[in-house]
Design a protein that fits this description.
Elements lengths: L1 E2 L6 E11 L23 E8 L7 H12 L2 H26 L16 E4 L2 H5 L5 E4 L3 H5 L7 H9 L7 H14 L3 H18 L9 H13 L4 H24 L1
Antiparallel strand pairs: 1-2, 2-3, 4-5
Helix pairs in contact: 6-7, 6-9, 7-8, 7-9, 8-9
């Protein structure tokens, strides 16, 4: 059961399962063993099902809901994004509960397949729908054309012909927090990211953002952010992303 607050309504029901290949065992024993051939190691596949807390009144109502989604790409994207936010909330909770810093979050681009549909009870959690649609791969939907050459920069970074900025990683973390619906964390990340980029990219003229970002970060320490603070963080992260794109294009 997923809730935003202790006394609040139920947001969603999240069902997690492991299927496919058997789970890879952890390394055991104290000694390494010799191998002659190396075969691909089987890995498990995880399935996450996000279920709405309130059922549809009838199969016809559910069918109309799904038909409306199919006719509206933006609505379909919004439905998928909301499901990902629920899943990432669970992963964040698991990361905190296990104190595991290596447990990352997921995105639509990392999914093997994404489906939206309706059905009865446990059947849906087992992948059996009354009706469903399979979304196109996220890369085909979301990737935008760009003058950047990520493959070339990747090679340059690995070969030490280029160096990543500290602010790049921090801005990515702020963007991930925004996408996951964590504005407080995004505000704090954005403040540190901005200070790093002001030092690393003085020509980007990002100093003017310091006031609004510092104000939002201070509000984040006190509690939830208001609309104005959320907007200022979104705009600041966009400005930092634009500065980083210009930096990468200059090589």
């Amino acid at each position: 059961m997923v809730r935003s607050g202790l006394e609040g309504p139920l947001d969603a029901v999240l069902v997690l399962g492991t299927l496919g290949a058997p789970e890879r065992r952890r390394m055991r024993g104290r000694r390494a063993r010799p191998v002659d051939e190396v075969d691909p190691e089987p890995v498990p596949t995880s399935r996450a099902t996000v279920v709405r807390p309130e059922p549809f009144g009838s199969r016809e109502e559910a069918g109309r809901w799904l038909a409306a989604l199919r006719a509206n790409d933006s609505a379909m994207e919004a439905e998928l994004d909301e499901a990902l936010r629920v899943l990432n909330r669970a992963l964040r909770a698991h990361r905190a509960a296990t104190a595991d810093p290596w447990l990352g979050e997921v995105s639509a681009e990392r999914a093997l397949v994404a489906r939206i549909g309706y059905g009865r009870g446990e059947a849906v959690t087992e992948g059996r729908y009354g009706e469903a649609v399979e979304l196109p791969r996220a890369g085909a939907r979301r990737v935008k054309r760009s003058m950047e050459a990520p493959e070339e920069r990747f090679a340059a970074l690995l070969g030490a012909r280029s160096e990543a900025l500290v602010g790049e990683e921090l801005v990515l973390r702020a963007r991930a927090d925004l996408a996951a619906g964590r504005p407080r964390e995004a505000a704090l990340q954005a403040r540190v990211a901005l200070e790093a980029l002001v030092a690393e990219l003085p020509e980007a003229a990002l100093d003017e953002l310091r006031g609004s970002v510092a104000e939002a970060a201070g509000a984040a320490l006190r509690g939830e952010l208001g609309v104005a603070e959320r907007t200022s963080i979104e705009e600041a992260v966009e400005a930092m992303e634009a500065a980083l794109r210009r930096h990468r294009l200059r090589g």
